[in-house]
Structures are given as structure tokens and as C-alpha cells.
């Protein structure tokens, strides 16, 4: 349990970079730096497109890393301090730069974070779920603990960032001190994770001549339908999170109080944190797929209620809690699903893909998050959002509601369909047994999975 907690601590740190940026980059750039929301959305999307490709290469690098620390651990540890420093730099755009200089600075720093250092860190961190254990319950437990820590970080960031910025004097000074604290909270936990966890389950090549370079790995991954479904699931999961980027605008312009963001964040994240303690037991009783889809139906109900109570804070909070409870089991099971898919691909092909399978689903995550941030920026631009205006046009209000409620509901419905198609669960005990006996690739059973 101590090692599981140490693993989970890493996602606490990672969110002090990623969630901090995702939640506040647009409003910081529009209202403090003076860059338009449309430009910020475009910068984020461009970086994320490159980011998707860098994820793929990073997975191959991990699969070919051989060190006394392991395959993933050294990357988690070494990239953490750089990631913390770059996060600080992103929220300290030099005021001496002209408008073009500021845009170039933001693009370069965001590119370094998204495409290189967060990619290296997060792909390595995520793949630890596979490297640490083969046990299904432990994998779900790792996912639950990971996201408990992640959601605690997200809740803290959402609830206290605007308070900290104001407490430190507001404006650029407030962002500088807040970003300095968050940079440390990013780097230190990730370094602890990278130093202390252990890698026990490292898939071996079927033969020494086997190629584990980029193209052969990509071929075996995309030939597997479950891998493709996993990418779609990750993409949808992160596209759903337009509500995260829109939350500060929703609080500010629907309820006329930026501090309502803390209430909405608590309603969204506290049920997740509590529910994740029970997720492994529920999955153990009813199975992963059935549990996740039952939860998604609850989430659809909760999001539907949010539409009817969009401007009633009390009932919106109730609906948000229901929505969050429904998402618990999918969040707990995401890493386990990807680790399972990695086992299936290895069993079918004989090619070790523990790092690469997480890198390509991470690519789906990054592209999804890039589109999410871009969609929020574009929606605000199309809606005629006016920065720092006390009153927004009706079109901007509709854009904010769309990103906060309507679009996420569509994504949840699509996630339900995707999880329904992930029907591999009953075959996994036999697949793991064959892997343990070295029956992978050409030596595996052809009767499983209908092939």
C-alpha cells in the first residue's frame, strides 16, 4: 500500500502542471497578458498535434530503455524538475515583450511542456501501471489511488488558484507567486515517485532479433481493435473535459462570482475522490465493463439534469455530484483497460509494448485535451466573448454553457458506446496464463478472442 500511495503521489504532482495550465492558461493569457482566446486556442491545438506524435516516439524510447533503475522510472524522475520550471515560466510572460514576442514566448514554452517534457514524464508515469504489476485488482487499485491524488490536486487547484492570485497581489505578481508554488508541487512529488516505486513486470522479447523500433510497434498496435478502441476512449474522456476549461467562465459570467468555481469544482471532484476508494471493490464484484457502463448511465442522467438547472446553483451542484459519481468507475478503470490492452497486444504479437501502448493512448489524451482547450477558446471567440467585460452577450453565454454542459453530455454517450465494444474481459485470465507460460505470438492459442 505504501508503494501504491507513492505511485499515486506522482499524479498529484503532474496535475500541478497539467491541470493548472488547462484550467487557467486561457483566462491568464486573455485577462493578464492580453492575448486573444482564439490565438491561445490555436497555439494549444498546434502544440498538441505535435504532442501526439512525440507521445508515440516516447513509448518506443521507454520500451527500448535499459537501465539499473528500470524502463520508466528514470524518465519520471529526470523530467520532473524541468517540468516544474517550465510551468512557472508559462505563467510569467515577460511584460517587456511586444505582442508578437509574447505570442512566440508562449508558443515556445508551451511547446516544450506539452511536446517534450510533460510527454516524457507522463508516458513513463502512466506505463508504470503495467510495469509494476500484472494483477487486475492491483491495476484498478493503482488507477483508483492515482486518480484520488489527481483529483485532490485538481480540487485544490480549482478552489484556491484564484484565491492565491488575489492574496499575492493580483495581476502578474499574483500569478508569479502562485506559479512558483505550483512548480514545486509539480516537481517534488514526481521525483519521489520516480525514485521509490519498483518495476516487476517487464515483458521480454520473444527473440533477440525481434524489432521493437517505432514502425513495427505501431503496426502491431493499430492492428488490434481493442487498442484502437482504447485510443477513442481516451480521446472522448478528455474531450468531455471542456467543462474544466469553461468552469471559471461559467462561475464568472453565469453566477457573476469567480469564487463559485470552487463550489463547482468541489461538486465535480469530491464525489470522484470519495468514490474512487470504493471503485476496486465494485469492479471486483461486477466486472470492469459492466461497472463502467452502469456508471456512465448515471453520468448521463446527472449531465441531463445540469441542462435543466443550468442557472440554479443549488440544483446544478446536485446534478454535478450525480454526474461525477457516474464517472468514478471509468476514471478508476482507464489505466487498467490500457494495461490489459497492452497484454492482449503482447500475447497476440509477441512484441513488448508496455510503454508504447500507454504512449499512443496518451496521444489520444493529448489531442483530446488540445482540442478541448481549443474548443473553449474558439467557442468564446465565436460567441463574441469580451475579456474583462462585466456583461457578456447572449451568444457568449450560450458558448460557455455549451462547453460546460452540452458538449460533455455528447462525449459521455459516445464513451458508453465505446466501453460496450471493449468485450475482452472474460478472456483475460486465460490470456495472462498463456503469457506466464511464454505462449505469445505464434505460440498462443487461436481459440481466444475468436482468432
Automatic annotation (TrEMBL):
Cross-referenced PANTHER family: MAJOR FACILITATOR SUPERFAMILY (MFS) PROFILE DOMAIN-CONTAINING PROTEIN (PTHR11328:SF24), MAJOR FACILITATOR SUPERFAMILY DOMAIN-CONTAINING PROTEIN (PTHR11328)
GO biological process, alphabetically ordered: carbohydrate transport; sodium ion transport
Phylogenetic classification of the source organism? Bacteria, Bacillati, Bacillota, Bacilli, Bacillales
Transmembrane annotation, as ranges: 20-47, 75-97, 103-124, 145-169, 175-197, 217-239, 259-279, 291-309, 315-339, 371-391, 403-424
Q: What is this protein called?
A: MFS transporter
Can you supply one Gene Ontology CC term for this chain's record? plasma membrane
**Keywords tagged on the record:** Membrane, Transmembrane, Transmembrane helix
Q: Which GO terms describe its molecular function?
A: symporter activity
CDD domains documented for this protein? MFS_MelB_like
Listed Pfam families: MFS_2
Amino acid at each position: 500500500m505504501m508503494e501504491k500511495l507513492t505511485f499515486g503521489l506522482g499524479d498529484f504532482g503532474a496535475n500541478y502542471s497539467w491541470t493548472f495550465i488547462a484550467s487557467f492558461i486561457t483566462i491568464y493569457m486573455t485577462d493578464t497578458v492580453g492575448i486573444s482566446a482564439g490565438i491561445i486556442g490555436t497555439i494549444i491545438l498546434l502544440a498538441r498535434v505535435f504532442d501526439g506524435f512525440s507521445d508515440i516516439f516516447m513509448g518506443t524510447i521507454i520500451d527500448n530503455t535499459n537501465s539499473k533503475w528500470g524502463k520508466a522510472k528514470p524518465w519520471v524522475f529526470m523530467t520532473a524538475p524541468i517540468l516544474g520550471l517550465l510551468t512557472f515560466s508559462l505563467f510569467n510572460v515577460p511584460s517587456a515583450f511586444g505582442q508578437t514576442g509574447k505570442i512566440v514566448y508562449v508558443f515556445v514554452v508551451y511547446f516544450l511542456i506539452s511536446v517534450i517534457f510533460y510527454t516524457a514524464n507522463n508516458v513513463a508515469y502512466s506505463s508504470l501501471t503495467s510495469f509494476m504489476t500484472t494483477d487486475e485488482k492491483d491495476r484498478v487499485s493503482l488507477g483508483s489511488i492515482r486518480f484520488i491524488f489527481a483529483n485532490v490536486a485538481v480540487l485544490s487547484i480549482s478552489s484556491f488558484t484564484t484565491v492565491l492570485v488575489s492574496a499575492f497581489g493580483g495581476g502578474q505578481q499574483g500569478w508569479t507567486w502562485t506559479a512558483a508554488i505550483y512548480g514545486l508541487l509539480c516537481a517534488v512529488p514526481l521525483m519521489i515517485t520516480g525514485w521509490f516505486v519498483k518495476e516487476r513486470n517487464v515483458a521480454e522479447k520473444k527473440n533477440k532479433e525481434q524489432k521493437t523500433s517505432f514502425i513495427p510497434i505501431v503496426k502491431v498496435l493499430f492492428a488490434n481493435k481493442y487498442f484502437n478502441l482504447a485510443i477513442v476512449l481516451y480521446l472522448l474522456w478528455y474531450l468531455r473535459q471542456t467543462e474544466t476549461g469553461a468552469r471559471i467562465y461559467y462561475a464568472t459570467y453565469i453566477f457573476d462570482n469567480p469564487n463559485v468555481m470552487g463550489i463547482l469544482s468541489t461538486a465535480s471532484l469530491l464525489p470522484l475522490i470519495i468514490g474512487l476508494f470504493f471503485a476496486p471493490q465494485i469492479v471486483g464484484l461486477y466486472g470492469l465493463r459492466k461497472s463502467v457502463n452502469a456508471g456512465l448511465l448515471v453520468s448521463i442522467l446527472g449531465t441531463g439534469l445540469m441542462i435543466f438547472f443550468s442557472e440554479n446553483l443549488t440544483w446544478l451542484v446536485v446534478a454535478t455530484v450525480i454526474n461525477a459519481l457516474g464517472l468514478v468507475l471509468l476514471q478508476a478503470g482507464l489505466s487498467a483497460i490500457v494495461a490489459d490492452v497492452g497484454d492482449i497486444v503482447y500475447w497476440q504479437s509477441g512484441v513488448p509494448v508496455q510503454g508504447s501502448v500507454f504512449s499512443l493512448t496518451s496521444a489520444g489524451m493529448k489531442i483530446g485535451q488540445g482540442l478541448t482547450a481549443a474548443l473553449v477558446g474558439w467557442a468564446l471567440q465565436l460567441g463574441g466573448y469580451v475579456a474583462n467585460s462585466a456583461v457578456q452577450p447572449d451568444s457568449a453565454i450560450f458558448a460557455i454553457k455549451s462547453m460546460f454542459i452540452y458538449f460533455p453530455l455528447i462525449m459521455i454517450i459516445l464513451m458508453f458506446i465505446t466501453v460496450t465494444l471493449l468485450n475482452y474481459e472474460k478472456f483475460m485470465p486465460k490470456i495472462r496464463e498463456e503469457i506466464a507460460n511464454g505462449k505469445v505470438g505464434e505460440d498462443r492459442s487461436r481459440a481466444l478472442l475468436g482468432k
